[in-house]
Amino acid sequence: MFSTAAHPHKRVGIAIGDHILPLTVMSELSLFRDERLNGDIFGRGSLNDFMALGKAVWDSGRADIQTALSVGGYFDTAEAIGRYFVPQREATMHLPAHIGDYTDFYSSKEHATNVGTMFRDPNNALLPNWLHLPVAYHGRASSVVLSGTSIKRPLGQTNPTDAPSPTFGPSKLMDFELEMGFFIGSGNELGEPIPVESAADHIFGLVLVNDWSARDIQKWEYQPLGPFLAKNLGTTISPWVVPLAALEPFRVDGPVQEPEPLPYLQTNGRHAYNIHLEVAIQSQQMDAPQVVCRSNHKHLYWNMSQQVAHHTITGCNLRPGDLLASGTISGPTADSYGSLLELTWRGSKPIPLADGSERRFLQDGDTVILTAYAQGDGYRIGFGEARGTIV
Ligand code: MN
After folding, report:
1. Selection from 171, 139, 227 nearest residue 362 by Cα
2. Start-to-end CA span in the chain (Å)
């Protein structure tokens, strides 16, 4: 979703190089074969109505866009590009969807193992349920914000020394979490689970997610019901939604799941995606961002189809625009951990920054930038960035 000074009404667009093709233009020119796409559906302020139309319509529309952008297609002239395309630098981006509900999973075995090792028992790092179901909690949708939105350091209760009573003040242990999220396209009726075999048909596309976390607040509050205030202070997403269909060439085998999941969670074939992920930090004193983590979406133990099937097995209804995030995506090596908690091992191994300082957790003025891409043969699919500054 974007707008410009000359055209302040929000429109759906797709990124082509450093330009944007407004899909409202495609509609006005009646370039879609499906008449439902030639009305005002791309000018309604969010992607939700388009998401609700379902996979067959997304695929049809995507093919029409590819035709129009191909050699000999409608936009295959400098004149057409000049008339219809918008330079990205002129655009203001907006949240791509009205997000009714947000769920955050905990689907990286490496991340869960690291956290379990630090906070519980290295010999029993994973809780007994972890290998049997994709653990998650219902998050806060109202504070999902677009890349570029500043994040206020939260106030809260902490009890760093396990004293008899807590203290109150600004969080001292602010962290990022490297995640990817996906938007639900078509949903399901209350009481009707989505089977794991068809779950991917309900996935519209992916964005980057930074699940900002106040670790000291989290440590004191999280038992027995899980995270609450430590996570609801803001969640940053990237503005560009990459359709799942565009990621088809990047499917790879996921981790071996042992023990075998229960039948309602069993998937066959390649359900992991080879998407390179990076996190960079830039302090106020630094001239350029410094990469502190390189990971990959393919490390996730539980795949997106399993997450959808598990989420709905009770009959819980997902709706167009719902956001389901992966959980922190940590890889197997120490430079692939997706949070400062793990990268600095609870602060015991600070990261040296280019400005001469070091980081255990985030300081005021620090900007965190998540980026991602899928590398094809001669082309690259970028995800843009999810950026935010702690203030
Ligand atoms: Mn998270």
Report:
1. 171
2. 26
Residue 94 and residue 310: Cα distance in Å, rounded? 30
CA distance 96 to 113: 33
| Pairwise CA distance, residues 265 & 70, whole Å | 40
Question: What's the CATH number where 11 sits?
Answer: 2.30.30.230
pTM over 0.90: yes
Domains in the chain, number? 2
Residues 109, 84: one domain?
Answer: no
pLDDT of residue 277 exceeding 90, the answer is: yes
Instruction: Specify whether 217 is located in the same domain as 252.
Output: yes
The pairing of strands 102-105 and 136-138 is: antiparallel
| Predicted confidence (pLDDT) per residue in 290-305, tens digit | 999 999 999 999 999 9
Whether residue 259 is found in the same domain as residue 279: yes
Which sequence positions are flagged as catalytic? 111
Neighbours of 138 (CB within 10 A): 12
The CA 49 to ligand 1 mean position distance, Å, reads 28
Q: Is the pLDDT of residue 13 over 90?
A: yes
Q: Which domain holds residue 380?
A: 102-389
Do residues 363 and 316 share a domain? yes
Ligand 1 center to 126 CA (angstroms)? 16
What is the per-residue DSSP string for 54-123? -HHHHHHHHHHHHHHHSTTSTT-SHHHHHHH-EEGGGEEE--SS--S-EEEE---HHHHHHHHHHHT-GG
Clarify whether residues 89 and 119 are in a common domain.
no
What gap in Å lies between CA 387 and CA 182, rounded to an integer?
18
Q: Ligand 1 centroid vs 31 CA: distance in angstroms?
A: 40
CB atoms within 10 A of CB 280: 18
Question: Each residue of 154-167: pLDDT tens digit?
Answer: 999 999 899 999 99
80 and 106 together in one domain: no
Question: What is the CA(325)–ligand 1 centre distance, in A?
Answer: 7
